[in-house]
Amino acid sequence: MTDSQKRRLRWRLVLGETTENTLGGLPDEWQDRETAIGFLYDRELQGQNIRSRGNSGGNNRDSPMERLRQRQGSLDPSNLTVPDWINAIHELFPQKTIFLRKGFANERLEKDALERYHLEEMVTNPNLLSRAQPSETLLKAVLRTKHLMNQQVLAMARDLVRKVVEELIEKLAQKVQSPFTGSLNRQQRSYIKIAKNFDAPTTIRRNLKHYSQERQQLVIQTPYFNSRIRRQVERWQSIILVDESGSMLDSVIHSAVTAAIFFGIKSLKTHLCLFDTSVVDVTADCTDPVETLMKVQLGGGTDIGQAMAYAQTLVENPRRTIVILITDFYEGAPVDRLLSVTKQLIESGVKILGLAALDEQANPNFDRDIAQRMVNLGAQVGAMTPGELATWVAEKVR
């Protein structure tokens, strides 16, 4: 796209759909932006009545913008329209997007939402928060607006975050813990009667002689159980580095939950660090992912090399250490430092796994050039769900 075409699209977006005849239409991704802007500024002309600007555009039916379109026409707080809008503008106008000037779009939209239309109350009003249904959508909106909250509202928001996190832990705990539990040893019987070790085929086969014709029932006189092989492993270090840029929010949430589950696995010594242009070691809060998430500062620059250098200072036994780098690989600092530290770690025996996404969808969006350069040095790069990450780590520590 040429500079003149970009200028036309920007003016078309600023002036609105009434200029479509003179400036033309908008491509799909720009229609999503127009919908987001219209959700806010159409109030100027029609009070609190929301109208849709542009057509539906895009094909992502699960995106915040699609949910926002489906809900336009109502400001009922239970619809969570405002949290959807908050999440949408951060996806459509990320800080790295050049739109008028770096970071201008979502800053301007948030400022007008707060000062002119008071849309922040969905995530800053205690009465509305008390009626809100906990969800990951609301969790992300809270993390993006917690800097606006007073202490009373922040305490309520923390409770909402805790409810969502507890649901995530309940959903993910078994998937993450299972790869680290002992495997069944079907060659050896066990006298410890545990339901998950019950050997149904052997029990049925060896008790067939006790079948009662009169009752037409199989009488189990002797149940059989398998023993388990205990995996004897040396304690490994897992150092998890998480990029807290806005585009990585889903991964930040799942990283905090996964690290908390890892922290309870005896074969692992887990560290958790958040980074942008500085590094914050939140290992002390690892058992409480809520505290970790409330310390997240979204946005800002990215210095991946500095985070890797900090991880290097934590390494105790290189051949028993895994560094899990969760980032989009868009490095803001000189790339040479990142590659140099990566090479040093790998040559010392440290295993490095770079994840462009860690969430339930595992849909990556990342700088493939830098990721490939790390792979060339011996790192592994991909996108995983928390369960897949646990399986990968368990295989390495066996």
From TrEMBL:
It holds the Pfam family VWA_CoxE. Residues 48-76 are annotated as: Disordered. Residues 51-62 have a biased composition (Low complexity). It comes from the Bacteria. SMART domains: VWA (SM00327). Residues 235-394 form the VWFA domain. InterPro entries: LolB (IPR050458), Uncharacterised_CoxE (IPR008912), VWF_A (IPR002035), vWFA_dom_sf (IPR036465). This is VWA domain containing CoxE-like protein.
